[in-house]
Design goal:
- Helix content is about 30%, strand content about 30%.
- It contains seven helices and 19 strands.
- By secondary structure, the chain is of the alpha+beta class.
- The two termini are about 20 Å apart.
- The protein has two domains: about 170 residues, no CATH class; about 150 residues.
- The protein has a five-stranded antiparallel beta sheet with strand order 4-5-6-7-8, with no helix packed on it. A five-stranded antiparallel beta sheet has the order 12-9-14-15-16, with no helix packed on it. Strands 1-2-3 form a three-stranded antiparallel beta sheet.
């Protein structure tokens, strides 16, 4: 985690997020890595791989590599069914299930399902393993030592490239949003109403104020920082602060914030908000519970902005809430 935070800090400090031209170069390098893996394996494994520094963890983001191209950045969740551990991937509209227990990793009879199609490699083994599993269990691969070695080296290269790509594309999703002004709104979001519903501004808006560049930059840094999340939240959602990013008169993105329930809802995916979780373990179950709520730091920064704008229903930036003890 410290390594990731250091990388993110370095990226911000050097303006890496703004260097969009770097993304195609990294994608090209990942393509080259996958081709190298295929060549090293001499065609004995398919050209589909999952590269991640978070093997076995909950709600982390992955780059899905297939046919030497990045198909999707996706999420996964762990669950248990009759004592069999498995990981369920959501890829486009198809549900992809991968058995990842120790038994499954050693048992070629387990298959990887993509939609209704069972897919295994030519040896009948599962062909999705984490980098750590490949390094610690080379027997999962073919027996040729040199080939296994080069496979791991290439996959490690893919791992490093993944972190670069993640820092370019995920930690600042607003880098992809075209906007020229940002407006904050005070409104009544009863019943979970967001600031924008069906492409139109919420009718309950009471007041509005355009953000300065400094306020916009500070807001983006806050809501895209993993340290701004990790708190609990209520099931209800009645936001009173809405932020809308405009491209001319067109709505480009928006986020609705509920201080009472300690939660936000954005029109674009915010990876930082899905970074934290806690684990509940019982005799026959294992549950990962996401912590999408704001941390004390994240909430207080938003409260400070709300008060600067002169809106009502803004909590004090120094207020201690029930969430501070979560």
């Amino acid at each position: 985690m410290k390594k990731v935070l250091l990388i993110v800090f370095a990226c911000i400090a050097t303006g890496l997020f703004a260097q969009k031209e770097d993304a195609p170069a990294i994608i090209k390098e990942i393509d080259k890595t996958v081709k190298g893996i295929d060549k090293a394996m001499q065609g004995q494994r398919p050209s589909a791989y999952l590269i991640t520094p978070y093997p076995g963890y909950f709600e982390k983001n992955f780059i899905w590599l297939r046919d030497n191209k990045i198909s999707k950045i996706t999420q996964f969740m762990n669950t248990s069914y009759r004592g069999v551990w498995y990981t369920e991937f959501y890829f486009d509209n198809n549900s992809i299930v991968l058995i990842r227990t120790e038994t499954a990793l050693k048992n070629p009879s387990y298959q990887h399902y993509e939609g209704s199609h069972a897919v295994t490699d030519t040896s009948g083994q599962l062909f999705y393993y984490s980098y750590n599993e490949l390094v610690s269990k080379p027997e999962l691969l073919i027996s040729n030592g040199d080939t296994v070695f080069w496979y791991n080296v290439l996959l490690k290269q893919g791992y490093d490239l993944w972190e670069q790509y993640k820092n370019l594309q995920e930690y600042n999703p607003f880098a992809k949003v075209k906007y020229d002004n940002v407006v904050a709104y005070s409104y009544e979001g009863k019943g979970g109403q967001k600031i924008v519903e069906n492409g139109k501004l919420n009718r309950t808006v009471k007041s509005k104020k355009e953000l300065t560049k400094e306020q916009t930059d500070s807001l983006i840094l806050n809501i895209t920082d993993t340290l701004s999340y990790g708190g609990g939240n209520m099931a209800c959602f009645e936001p009173h602060l809405g932020i809308v990013f405009y491209d001319g008169k067109k709505i480009a993105a928006h986020i609705s914030i509920c201080f009472e329930c300690n939660l936000s809802s954005a029109s674009i995916y915010l990876p930082a908000a899905h970074h934290h979780s806690r684990v509940n373990i019982g005799d026959d179950y294992y549950v990962k519970i996401p912590l999408h709520g704001f941390s004390t730091m994240g909430r207080r920064k938003l409260a400070k902005l709300c008060n600067q704008l002169g809106f009502d229903k803004c909590p004090s930036p120094t207020e201690t809430t029930i969430w501070d003890s979560k």
